[in-house]
Specification:
The structure holds three protein chains of three kinds. By secondary structure, chain A is mainly alpha-helical. Chain A is built from three helices and no strands. In chain B, about 70% of the residues lie in helices and about 0% in strands. Chain B contains three helices and no strands. The radius of gyration of chain B is 25 Å and the shape is flat. Classes of the chains: A mainly alpha, B mainly alpha, C mainly alpha.
Chain lengths: ~100, ~120, ~170
């Protein structure tokens, strides 16, 4: 029997992997992808809770999270390309200046 | 309900299996006499230059950016269209508001020349 | 029983692809592993009786968003940038903190299991687009309209950021 705990544990695992990736990778694009992974793990927990509690709200939340993620990706990647054009790098260690 | 998706999954597995079988069959049947000319991407025609890891031109990317946002809009249209029968005029007004706001975004992109191919 | 096997199989794939995404050196491979991960999570959504959310996940996330990611990676030629260099103590520290995070949450979940069995058979219009659409346009109409403002802002932001720095070579 697959219980809600199974799904929550899986979600925690994926979230943790995303968080570690966020900390250790130096490529801004991969850091961004790790954020997507963490959002996705949270979404899994929401949908699982929605199913096991019999409430539709969890799915709606994920729907909105997906929308926000798409908007975030559009602006974030535009920002990254703009940074790349001035600094010629996507390595976050080299992006230490506060003035462009 | 899940049985319906099981068919899809089975179909997916079958198509992968078929691909594997065909590739394996060819591997055993075909003669192996490679030469440099034969290993070219295009055996005749234009000479290939460089490798396949090229950088795209930046112009495509603004289209991709805007596409992502309108893709989300399309996804919102879908449940609206299905729930339309139960909601009537109310839903039309809500969606009209939604679309008008996004149309503003499209007009802005247009005026800024983001959609030009130059 | 079959359900449990399916869960562990899919969970294994999900964790493996997530790990591969974090570990692999090449950003393009990383993005492709993430696509696989997103698809597996979409299958989980199907199993959990959320076909519409699964469809959206594939169409928006695994489709459009990841294509945009691949696009930018190829455009910047950033596929091989940076492994895990940087501060020397950062990797072990991040590993330890991440392990602590995972351990802590797992401990919390497993000690006080929310181990609910699924609520009977779900109500009939559960998770299908019509039910979601109806809820979206009645109870949650305000977030729905705010979403359109958000998308508008994102669009303007993207256009401004992409145009102001000017096309390359000009």
């Amino acid at each position: 029997m697959v219980t809600l705990t199974h799904y929550l544990a899986l979600s925690a695992l994926l979230f943790g992997i995303g968080a570690v990736g966020f900390l250790i990778r130096r490529n801004a694009l991969i850091i961004f992808m790790c954020v997507e992974l963490m959002l996705n793990a949270a979404g899994l927990a929401f949908v699982a809770a929605s199913r096991y509690r019999g409430l539709l709200e969890g799915q709606l939340t994920v729907f909105f999270v997906l929308t926000v993620a798409a908007a975030e990706v559009a602006v974030g990647l535009a920002l990254m390309v703009a940074i790349f054009r001035t600094k010629r790098t996507t390595n976050v260690d080299e992006l230490s200046g506060l003035r462009g | 309900m899940l049985q319906g998706y099981a068919v899809v999954g089975l179909y997916l597995l079958l198509s992968f299996a078929l691909l594997g079988v065909v590739l394996l069959l060819w591997w055993f049947l075909r003669p192996k006499k490679p030469n440099p000319l034969k290993l070219e991407t295009y055996e005749c025609g234009v000479q290939t230059v460089g490798d396949a890891w090229v950088q795209f031109r930046a112009q495509y990317y603004i289209f991709a950016l805007i596409f992502v946002l309108f893709d989300v809009e399309a996804v919102f249209l879908f449940p609206w269209a299905v729930a339309y029968n139960q909601l009537g005029l109310y839903a039309v007004i809500e969606m009209a508001l939604f679309l008008l706001l996004l149309l503003g975004g499209l007009l802005y992109a247009w005026r800024k020349g983001a959609l030009e191919w130059a | 029983m079959g359900e449990l096997i399916a869960f562990y199989l899919l969970a294994g794939i999900a964790v493996a692809t997530a790990l591969a995404m974090v570990i692999t050196r090449n950003a393009v491979h990383s993005a492709l592993f993430l696509v696989l991960n997103l698809v597996v999570v979409a299958v989980f959504y199907l199993l959990l009786g959320a076909p519409f959310v699964a469809m959206v996940q594939i169409a928006v996330y695994a489709g459009a968003v990841m294509v945009l990611f691949l696009f930018v990676i190829m455009m910047l030629g950033a596929e091989r940038v940076g492994g895990t260099t940087g501060l020397r103590w950062q990797v072990p520290l991040a590993g330890a903190l991440g392990a602590a995070l995972i351990g802590g949450t797992l401990f919390a979940f497993l000690r006080a299991p929310a181990g609910l069995a699924p609520v009977g058979s779900p109500p009939v219009p559960f998770g299908d687009p019509a039910a979601i659409g109806e809820r979206l346009l009645t109870t949650y109409v305000l977030p729905f309209e705010i979403t359109s403002v958000l998308l508008l802002i994102a669009m303007i932001g993207a256009v401004v950021l992409a145009r102001d720095s000017g096309p390359e070579g000009k």
